[in-house]
Write a structure and sequence with these properties.
3 helices, 38% helix
Length: 124
Amino acid sequence: MLPAYHKMTSPVQFRRTIKHGQRAGTRTLVLHVWEDDGSVHIARQGGPRIGLVVSKAVGNAVVRHRVSRRLRHVCREFLGELEPQYNVVIRALPSSGTATSEQLARDMRKALAKVLRKKNPDGC
């Protein structure tokens, strides 16, 4: 379970992150990362905010909840690697319904590396 201050709670936060953020995809998920530079005046507490999108295309309710639980667990591992001003939306693709936790973690790490490389192309 993610602490409340790490969760995205409003549709506006999701839309803003998806619209303005950097995007990277893998076989099982698409990651959107947006750095809040302070121009949007969002009250922040704690570190980065995470939002999950697991649609019916992933599977039935049991499968969707299992994927959500696995993604939340994987997210906890990455919270220390993200800057506090980051907003992250993780969209599960249909293939995530059959993926293991290890595959999801590997794909998340891969997508996160892609996004952070796009944000800092000079490596600084």
